Amino acid sequence: MKTQTALRLLAIVRMTARAGAFVALTVLLVPPYLLVYPLGRLGRDGIARLYFRGCVALTGLRLRVSGATNAGAANRDGPVLFVANHVSYLDIPVLGALCRGTFIAKGEVSRWPVFGPLARLSGTVFVSRINATLNDERNILAERLNAGENFFLFPEGTSSDGSLVGPFKSALFSPAHMRNTLALRVQPVTIAYATDRKGRRLGPVERDRYAWYGDMEMFGHLLRVFMLPGAIVDVRFHRAVAAHDFADRKTLAQHSHDAVSRGLSDILGRPRDGAAADRATLYDAAAE
Fold it and tell me: Which segments constitute the Phospholipid/glycerol acyltransferase domain (predicted)?
């Protein structure tokens, strides 16, 4: 009983410290971000990357990365559209800590307290996915892709418990096939909260503590995440493909889904590809 009480007390202390540090990090970095905003993306991206890495560290996450992650090099051949499965709002700092790019989010996110204003500040493209506005949203994305901007897309359209990958909605792949779009590379990415920080595989209940889906309340969930000791997030970057090598957006979406789904099955239980495991590197945001 004493041990349980002590662990509970430790979790509360950890939550309080991390929540306070999260507020301090936000207050500390937003003013300089606003200051460099008129100078363009280069200065803003550096501060945003620092913020995302801070958020990853404060949630106790470490990132185990495999595959090519050098979006800067990929940009020499055209912009990159990263397409990933969606488990939690935690996916955003996880990807933002690793790659330079802008997020595509559903319109409701813009109205969330705290995170909505932060998303608007970062230049997030909000989409409604209704027919009346789909063409305008597609044109905005195509224009920014043509300007060389990378994007992160969660094509499931919602988050899940992370055990499966839902069907990908192909509508937002359509800018890749617009005639005036530059050569676009699409890179599928698998995200899995599958291991604790000691390397032990998490069970479904433990993984579910990091997943945020359905009608879960966000701030309560975030505070519970702050209480946890932490986990390793596997981020697997699959081979990037040229969008124009696919006949249409649906075949491109299906290819991306299959790659992400195979990666998730591999991470969660099927034997891992030995070469890929050897190439994996452990990224500790706290050490940056």
Answer: 80-194
Is 193 strand, coil or helix? strand
Kindly report whether the global pTM for this prediction surpasses the value 0.85: yes
Residue of 160, 247, 71 lying closest to 255 (CA atoms):
247
Decide if 248 contacts 175 (C-beta within 8 A).
no
Q: How far apart are CA 172 and CA 175, in angstroms?
A: 7
Domain ranges of the chain: 1-283
- CA gap 16, 19 in Å, rounded: 5
pLDDT of residue 178: 64
3-state DSSP assignment of residue 257: helix
Q: In this predicted structure, which of 107-111, 199-203, 226-230 has the lowest mean pLDDT?
A: 107-111
End-to-end Cα separation, the chain, in angstroms = 38
Q: How far apart are CA 194 and CA 210, in angstroms?
A: 10
* CATH code of domain 1-283: 3.40.1130
AA identity, residue 51: Y
Compute φ and ψ for 193, nearest 5 degrees.
-95, 85
